[in-house]
Write a structure and sequence with these properties.
This protein has 429 residues and is α/β, with parallel strands linked by helices. It folds into three domains: 2-112, Rossmann fold, CATH 3.40.50; 123-362, tm_1862 like domain (pyruvate-formate lyase- activating enzyme, Alpha-Beta Horseshoe), CATH 3.80.30.20; 368-425, Beta Barrel (OB fold (Dihydrolipoamide Acetyltransferase, E2P)). It has helices spanning 2-15, 39-52, 56-59, 68-73, 76-80, 96-106, 151-154, 163-175, 202-210, 230-238, 255-260, 267-280, 299-312, 339-364, and strands at residues 29-34, 62-67, 86-88, 110-112, 133-137, 139-140, 159-160, 180-184, 217-221, 245-247, 285-292, 316-321, 368-377, 380-388, 393-397, 406-415, 418-423. The structure holds 5'-deoxyadenosine and iron/sulfur cluster (SF4). 5'-deoxyadenosine binds next to strand 11.
Length: 429
């Protein structure tokens, strides 16, 4: 979500004649689009901004702090970092140029941090880095209130974007040659619930998007398990453009911890949904997010999380150590799992996930996968890199002219998290 917000901000700044540069030393304006999800993310930004306050060159620049830290810390950022010029929250991106004008005219610090997203953003202004894959925002904010999470406070409650506006952006992206669109929201499954008059649920939106001529691939992120519906599962089965991969975070494998997290499902209910999804969409692959070391988590409860990973065999697992966040309900419980214990649990899960991935890769040897070619592989310029519909990373020999094409690749080996193969029959660019 932050990546897309950054692309929108770059577009808004280009509209006023600014140009993006890659070297911070030559920039006149620096924007820090920040994340508050874990403490480390915040500390990195505070450290960097603190160091800059002592650099003469940096003091000549205009510095803005945007994103979740702007909402989480508000005016206190000016007290801690007196050299920053403006603070712009997640729900105020459309105010970027106005705030910049204020700073330029008055020379004074400026701040906008609305709690709720209310204005339509100029999404079409987004200046994307990729020419092939694009993020499209469909719902902003979150009303789920998991007890560990800052998002409902830093981004506000759920606000769906009008389907016509989404369709228009998707059409423009297809017309400009984009091949893959990822629909974004903290919880895409509740799309439309805040706007009953539109009569457009998430799956309805998907049916409309799939009809856009030339739409090759659609993905979406993230799904909350309580809101996933049979209709959505059927859409994944039936819609040609919709990829058979669902990021479906379980967070923990113990019912006591899930309840404390306010996830609103039990392990049994979650497994039931996974089973239903696998029955309706054969071959579907899954992704997850996991938090280890939630307050009071015992070794036994951690083991239950371990078992879930082993049982489900996700293709992608993002595993995090619990980080206590100011303003969240979980703060009332002592962060009592020792850091070493959290790190040990994290490592154990990561190793398990690696073993699971190796097993999946082994099973894919000799099969053919449809790969959207994204770019040269950084490590070896003779190889191209892309992803299969099931989200597996694939590399194969090829050249730049293949970028943006879909190729059938036969898998012959794998290395780390990446499948290695050869094009079966070249598709023309
Ligand atoms: N500590 C650790 N991980 C967190 N996440 C959200 N809040 C926290 C926190 N306080 C993780 C969840 C979520 C992902 C985006 O980040 O797993 O799904
Ligand atoms: Fe945070 Fe839970 Fe909302 Fe995800 S669903 S953004 S973890 S509150």
């Amino acid at each position: 979500m932050n990546e897309l917000d950054s692309e929108i901000m770059v577009g808004l700044l280009e509209k006023r004649g600014l140009q993006r540069v890659n070297d911070e030393n030559v920039a006149d304006l620096l924007l820090f689009n920040t994340c508050s999800i874990r403490d480390l993310a915040e500390r990195k930004v505070m450290g960097k901004l603190g160091r800059m306050s002592r650099e003469a060159g940096a003091r000549q620049k205009i510095i803005g702090v945007t994103g979740c830290m702007a909402n989480a810390k508000k005016e206190s950022l000016f007290r801690k970092l007196p050299h920053i010029d403006f603070v712009l929250g997640t729900n105020n991106i459309h105010h970027l140029n106005e705030v910049l004008d204020e700073v330029l005219v008055s020379g004074k610090q400026s701040i906008r941090t609305d709690d709720q997203f209310t204005f339509e953003l100029d999404y079409l202004a987004a200046k994307r880095e990729s020419k092939i894959k694009a993020f499209v925002s469909i719902i902003r904010g979150c009303s789920k209130y998991c007890t560990y999470c800052v998002v409902p406070y830093t981004r506000g409650e759920e606000v769906s974007r009008h389907p016509d506006s989404i369709i228009e952006e998707c059409k423009q992206l297809v017309d400009s040659g984009y091949k893959e669109i990822t629909l974004l929201g903290q919880n895409v499954n509740s799309y439309g619930n805040d706007q009953p008059d539109w009569n457009c649920h998430f799956h309805d939106l998907l049916y409309r998007i799939d009809k856009i001529p030339g739409m090759e691939r659609v993905r979406f992120m993230t799904s909350h398990p309580v809101d996933i519906t049979r209709e959505l599962m059927e859409a994944i089965r039936d819609l040609k453009s919709l990829c058979e991969f669902v990021h479906f975070p379980v967070q923990a494998g113990s019912n006591r911890i899930l309840k404390k997290m306010h996830r609103m499902y039990t392990v049994e209910e979650y497994l039931e949904k996974v089973q239903m999804l696998r029955e309706i969409v054969p071959g579907v692959t899954l992704g997850t997010d996991i938090i280890v070391g939630f307050p009071t988590e015992t070794e036994e409860e951690f083991q239950q999380t371990y078992n879930i990973l082993e049982q489900i065999e996700y293709t992608v697992g993002f595993i995090f150590a619990y980080s206590a966040r100011k303003g969240t309900p979980a703060l009332r419980w002592k962060d009592d799992v020792l850091e070493e214990v959290k790190q040990d649990r994290l490592q154990r899960l990561m190793h398990l996930q690696e073993r699971i991935n190796a097993k999946q890769q082994q099973e894919l040897l000799g099969t053919e996968l449809e790969v959207l070619v994204e770019r040269q592989n950084y490590k070896d310029s003779q190889m191209m890199k892309g992803r299969a519909r099931n989200f597996h990373k694939v590399i194969f020999p090829g050249e730049d002219s293949l970028v943006g094409t879909l190729q059938q690749v036969r898998i012959h080996s794998y290395s780390h998290q990446t499948l290695v193969g050869e094009i079966v029959k070249r598709n023309a660019a």
